[in-house]
Amino acid sequence: MTTAAATHSRFNTGIYHGKLGMWVFLASEIMFFTGFFGAFIVLRNLNIEVFTASAHQLDKVVATINTAVLISSSLTMALSHVALERGHEAKFRLFMALTLLFAFAFLGIKSYEYATKFSHDIYPWTNTFFASYFTMTGFHALHVIGGMIPMAWMLGKSLLKGYPRTMHHRVETLGLYWHFVDLVWIFLFPTLYLIF
């Protein structure tokens, strides 16, 4: 009696599995945030006066500075990947540390915005606009924190015992996530601060 092993041809995308997984995850995140934006548009059209008056209470200057901070973090994230890919671990550490610093700055500025709103008795339950504002920016802030955790881990590993050049694909995958976080903010910024 003979047994023959069954051979099956498997489809190969040629893409690192983690990167492919990140693209699938980001597709689900796009649907998640699309729901927020869709709900915002419907609620805005139903409460246009409330939304217009409330949007004028947001600080556009602070939000513009925060946008510049987050866009800068996208640049430093890309530079950290390039540095590691080329074997320049010191530059990798520098750019990853700058990315982490920009992320902390973004959250600090967002916390200042929230504190300012709270000091003026503006809360998520104040009206429909602020419920949307706090929900959308709050979930975005959670995504920022979610990106900072692996950043800190990679930077810490590099400082303690080195981060192998062969792991540059992991930094690239994290970069995809981080650029997505930035892209969501680029849509949130005009939606909440500029269109009214």
Description:
This protein is mainly α. It has a single domain, classed as Four Helix Bundle (Hemerythrin (Met), subunit A). It is built from six helices and no strands. Helix 1 packs parallel to helix 6. The chain starts with 16 loop residues before the first helix and ends with a helix. The model has no long low-confidence stretch (mean pLDDT 91).
Unreliable parts: none
Note the main sheet. none
Query: What's the overall geometry?
Result: elongated
Number of domains: 1
How many helices? The count is: 6
What's the total number of strands? Answer: 0
Q: End-to-end distance, in Å?
A: 78 Å
Rounded mean pLDDT score: 91
Rg: 21 Å
CATH class placement: Mainly Alpha
CATH superfamily: Cytochrome c oxidase, subunit III, four-helix bundle
Share of residues in strands:
under 5%
How much helix is in the residues? over 70%
CATH-derived topology? Four Helix Bundle (Hemerythrin (Met), subunit A)
What structural class do helix, strand and pairing data support? mainly alpha
